[in-house]
Design a protein that fits this description.
The chain has 471 residues and is an alpha/beta fold. The protein has 14 helices and 17 strands. It has two domains: 351 residues, Alkaline Phosphatase, subunit A (3-Layer(aba) Sandwich), CATH 3.40.720; 101 residues, 2-Layer Sandwich (Arylsulfatase, C-terminal domain), CATH 3.30.1120. Helix 1 crosses helix 9 and helix 6 packs parallel to helix 9.
């Protein structure tokens, strides 16, 4: 296995974090360096974990701005990253199951940063980010795809142990060392270790999971079998399932520490803005589901978002609603570029707090035929209707609406029902009507003619106003 011993790596990583945070009192350069780290598949409730299991994230959060109400625009890698890199919802960038490749007419974050004089580099192992699949990294001058060790290329179900994070961090460190001071830089790092299969390295298991079989893991194949209905919910050891997932998250935490240590070693403490987020969450038995497909529940859309911007953002929590697409406008603010097209769902985090009534929107396009077909081959009796459908969600405050293209409607009040266990659409038809109209208005921004295409009748507008959805 190619991973460093966990304890030694953790000591080095935490030392690096301490030095990084201690040096963050000075003013950043007018155009700071920017590092975006995506902790692929890490749930928002990582913040509630014991700090001993996530020491780097805990230390970083203590000295950063923590956005506690951040939403992904989609529940899986491709559309979520496309939103971060274009500032658009899936309705605008069209990067979905049906069309995973980013259209040539969409300008990316890296392209704009290059035009603004930034050196750009991307380090990753998730094959969904590569040019051969999606083209999401278009515009990066340096691109390094780490091999996923112990698996078969293109078959996520065979990944074992190292998922490329250590190589990505090593490449990032070497790239930093090779750089001169002549231009600012933007680096993107995606760390895949929390993704299926859940297979923490031996040192993490000894440190955090001594009660578990050292050879135990949750494979991608098992995930497919579960989604195909071959394993009953009540027969699954969910405690084991979650333990192995959180063990992988601890591995990601250590890798993040390596990135922070690399910045410290290279002398980029005071002149770098560090953005750390996930691209989506993960179902760990939530709603009877696993992985991150076929749903738009909070377990998939709520994500961690931490920004360390010395001299620009004060440390502490911010509770206003934000979208991952806001990263695009935030980086634009830092680098001094303007988006070439309107990005109505990208708002700079450097500005004042977003209105509490801001609408958060997420979409899940109908899944690829081969995915549904694979599940159907595993179980010919599979109810395809439950998975082969598109979903759209909108949330304002604590009220969220999800619409399926087969006609299903779900309305949840998160204040009373944070686990989304009780669908109250029948009891609250006014909320359904108001949020449905608002969702159509938000998505109309990406149709010819923009938002003006959707007209709200006065009764609907009044209902939205009473709920605090519009002014």
């Amino acid at each position: 296995m190619l991973r460093a011993p966990f304890r030694l790596f953790l000591i080095v990583a935490c030392f690096g974090v301490a030095a990084f945070l201690a040096g963050g009192c000075g003013e950043p350069a007018p155009r700071p360096n920017i590092v975006l780290v995506v902790l692929d598949t890490v749930r928002e409730d990582v913040a509630a974990r014991d700090p001993a299991a996530r020491p780097v994230l805990a230390a970083l959060a203590a000295e950063s701005t923590v956005f506690t109400n951040a939403w992904a625009t989609a529940p899986w890698t491709v559309p979520s990253h496309a939103s971060m890199f274009t500032g658009l919802l899936a309705a605008g960038h069209h990067c979905t199951h049906q069309n995973p490749r980013l259209d040539a007419d969409k300008t990316t974050l890296a392209e704009l940063l290059g035009q603004a004089g930034y050196a750009t580099a991307a380090f990753y192992s998730n094959p969904w980010l590569s040019d051969r699949t999606t083209g999401l990294l278009r515009g990066f001058a340096t691109v390094q795809e780490a091999p996923v060790q112990g698996g078969v290329a293109g078959d996520a179900g065979t990944w074992r142990g190292d998922q490329g994070g250590r190589a990505s961090v090593g490449w990032f460190r070497r790239w930093l060392r090779s750089r001169g001071p002549e231009q600012p830089f933007f680096a993107f790092v995606n760390l895949l270790e929390a993704h299926l299969p859940y297979d923490p390295p031996a040192d993490v298991r000894r440190h955090l999971l001594p009660q578990r079989d050292p050879d135990d893991l949750v494979t991608g194949e098992w995930g497919m079998e579960y989604q195909a209905g071959l394993h009953a919910f009540g027969e699954v050891d969910w405690a084991r399932h979650r333990d192995l997932y959180w063990g992988d998250v601890a591995t990601v935490d250590g890798l993040l520490g390596g990135i922070v240590a690399a910045l410290t070693e290279a002398g980029h403490v005071e002149d770098t803005v560090l953005i750390v987020c996930s691209d989506h969450g993960e179902n760990l038995g939530d709603h009877g589901l696993v992985d991150h497909q076929f749903s738009l529940h909070e377990s998939l859309l709520a994500v961690p978002l931490i920004v360390r911007a010395p001299g620009l953002l004060a440390a502490g929590e911010r509770t206003e609603p934000v979208l991952l697409s806001d990263i695009f406008a935030t980086v634009g603010d830092l680098a001094g570029f303007t988006a070439p097209v309107p990005t109505p769902h990208s708002r700079s985090l450097l500005g004042g707090p977003a209105p509490a009534g801001r609408a958060l929107v997420a979409e899940y396009a109908r899944p690829q035929g081969h995915l549904v077909g694979s599940l159907a081959r595993l179980n010919p009796d599979l109810d395809r209707g439950a998975i082969d459908r598109a979903l759209r969600s909108i949330r304002v405050g604590d009220v969220r609406l999800t619409l399926a293209d087969d006609g299903e409607v779900q309305l949840h009040d998160l204040a009373a029902d944070p686990g989304q266990e009780h669908n109250v659409f029948a009891e609250r038809p006014g909320d359904v009507k108001a949020l449905r109209a608002l969702l159509e208005q938000e998505l109309a921004a990406y149709r010819p003619g923009g938002r003006s295409e959707v007209e709200l009748d006065e009764a609907t507008r009044e209902k939205l106003r009473s709920l605090g959805y519009v002014r």
